[in-house]
Amino acid sequence: AVVVVLNLDGGIEGEGHDRTSMDLPQGQVELVNQLRDAIPRGTPMVAVLMHGGVVTLPPVWDQFDAVLDSFYPSIYGGQALGEALFGKINPSGKLPVTVYESDHQLPGHIQHQDPYPSDEVPYSMGLTYKYFTGEPFLPFRFGLSYTTYAYAKVVAPPASVQACDPFNVTVTVTNTGHWDGDEIVQLYIALPESTVPAPQLQLGAFQRVSVKAQSSVDVTLTVQPHAHYVVHEDPYDTAWNATRVVESGRRIIYVGGGQPGEGAQVLTTGTTVENTVPLTSCPSNWTD
């Protein structure tokens, strides 16, 4: 196999030094294309990415047999990458960002980067997985490993809960492959009855769980009130003093290996919140 390292560095991005494009440097794209042409047919080519900000991958994606994203991996990064590439460990990481198709999926100017989608000038498809209405190249929390997982037997929360009540969702996770591995079980929440603009989807809970090959475990995720509040603003509010409110209404809950609609296996359940209260009235350690 051939391992190709593609990277950004302090000369390209940094504090007070923003990039004008999410693209990889053009010279690296040309290098990948030339290597693919030169490598004998049937020889795997693997990309290792090192970067801070998001990079667009469509220009090089089809040239590689596998891609391992390390971001900036710090002092033990070389050891971790070597162990992952040579099979000493089974990778289990998930993307902490959305990878977009191109710059064109983002608003053209920072002054226009309101997170909410807009049909008015300046037009926007929204920002981050919570609001983006386009089709990302790779979704937030995407990631593969050397094994595969299946989800079954979701145990729903109570049919109704009070606004300040935590609630649990339990699911059975089966490692269907031949490697022991860690899976990141993810729970997302949608608020279809919100009275104010709200994320179309938001991560409500997650848990890393170790699962032996051909074995199953039951995983319980606890959803706290701070995972499904909305923001009520008046003309004098700022981001620092807006009122955070847990509203009454339905909660659609998705649990699985990723976001719903993005290729991962996801099971659906739900509950209904019976009352509306300010988040500050709920006892919680969520700010710790």
Report how far the terminal alpha carbons are from each other.
46 Å
What is the helix content? 10-25%
Mean pLDDT across the residues is: 90
Biggest sheet descriptor: 5 strands, mixed
Unreliable spans are: none
Strand order of the largest sheet: 5-13-12-7-8
Description:
There is one protein chain. With 288 residues, this protein is mainly beta. The chain contains four helices and 14 strands. The protein has helices spanning 26-38, 58-61, 77-85, 128-131, and strands spanning 2-7, 45-50, 66-69, 149-155, 160-161, 167-175, 181-190, 202-211, 216-223, 230-232, 243-246, 249-256, 266-273, 277-278.
Break the fold down into its secondary structure elements and pairings.
Layout: E1 2-7, H1 26-38, E2 45-50, H2 58-61, E3 66-69, H3 77-85, H4 128-131, E4 149-155, E5 160-161, E6 167-175, E7 181-190, E8 202-211, E9 216-223, E10 230-232, E11 243-246, E12 249-256, E13 266-273, E14 277-278
Parallel strand pairs: 1-2, 2-3, 5-13
Antiparallel strand pairs: 4-6, 6-9, 7-8, 7-12, 10-11, 11-14, 12-13
Index terms:
single chain; 288 residues; three-stranded parallel sheet; 14 strands
Short overview:
The protein has 288 residues and is mostly beta strands. The chain has helices spanning 26-38, 58-61, 77-85, 128-131, and strands spanning 2-7, 45-50, 66-69, 149-155, 160-161, 167-175, 181-190, 202-211, 216-223, 230-232, 243-246, 249-256, 266-273, 277-278. The protein contains four helices and 14 strands.
